[in-house]
Structure prediction request, 379 residues.
Amino acid sequence: MNLVFTVMILVSLVMLIIVSPESAFSIMISGASSALKLAFTLIAIYAIWLSVLSLMEGIGLNKAMNKLFRPITKRLFKGESDLALEYITLNFSANLLGMGGAATPLGIKAMESMQDGSEKATDNMILFMVINSTSIQLIPATIIGLRAAAGSNAASDIILPSLLATIISTVTGVILAKLCAKFRKKEKEESKAQMPRAPLFLNIRHRSVRK
Amino acid sequence: MSKYILPAFIFIIILVSFIKKVPVYDNFVKGSKESITLILSIFPYICAVLIAVELFSLSGLNGYLAKIMSPVLTFLGIPDELCELLIIRPLSGNGSLALLEGIYKTHGVDSYVSRCASVIVGASETVFYVGTVYFSTTKVKKLRYAIPISLFACYFGAIMACLICRVM
Prediction:
């Protein structure tokens, strides 16, 4: 993130200095104020969804859903606690139904319960982010609405193509994330196994060969 | 049909809470109390991302990048007109919806380009936003391979979307 942020700002500022240096500050202010506006709307949206979540927890619905989806989530996110799996399940259901406002606070909670205290994201956290950023929405309601508003003859024709594209991108993401996790794990194990013990190992082997 | 799901869902939850004698009001307040603290902790991240996105899209850099990228995209089977959309998509949700509406206007809603654009937006997310906001309350500073893989999967999905739109 640091790299992306720095490069984006640096290059845009260079462009602005060439094109219109006087507008740079007002653009930054407008970015910050749209963040403020977004934050206020989000307070309202999250207030409702977090309340619904707390009501769901009150009647144990989150536990029931977790039990239902555990066979899948447990396999995808190996070694995570029940609490984390619960939030993951709820986040995925909200995403599937296209409720972005509900999915984000749940996703944040899921990340919180998955963290191991280090500054590096764990493999499971990355997998979770990848699935969330490839969109697993079943019906893209916002876009169908936009299309209908623009006067489309068949606004909902994009449901099936979107679903296919989403499945392809999510499956690609999951496979890549899993491959990366496996590759890193192997590297780590190999370096752990070889580095400190190598000389001792070699000695023993030489002796046994001579005998 | 789908418009009934949400109110019905909340109705059922509250009804079940009432039957189970769970304190509805107390639970509701407990949840909404979390909202402000959550926003307070994610606001700096949203702010930083939105400032960067605003600078990026208003500096005209977006247009230049789109020009540079267009031969690559044509090679991958993505229409030229979608360059800007593809660049903005992982950065800003509102920005990409605005571009999408623009594409509808200039090319007609039911054209191939517009359908491609709709599918691309519908089948992806704002990767950088997810990357900052989701990790915002954790100690994590290094996302390792999270963003490259997310971006790759999204763009691969976009290429597939254009292919699918050609057939369907």
User: Anything to note?
Assistant: Chain B has one domain: 25-167. The longest helix of chain B spans residues 24-58. The helical segments of chain B are 2-19, 24-58, 61-76, 83-88, 93-107, 112-122, 127-135, 146-167. DSSP finds eight helices and no strands in chain B.
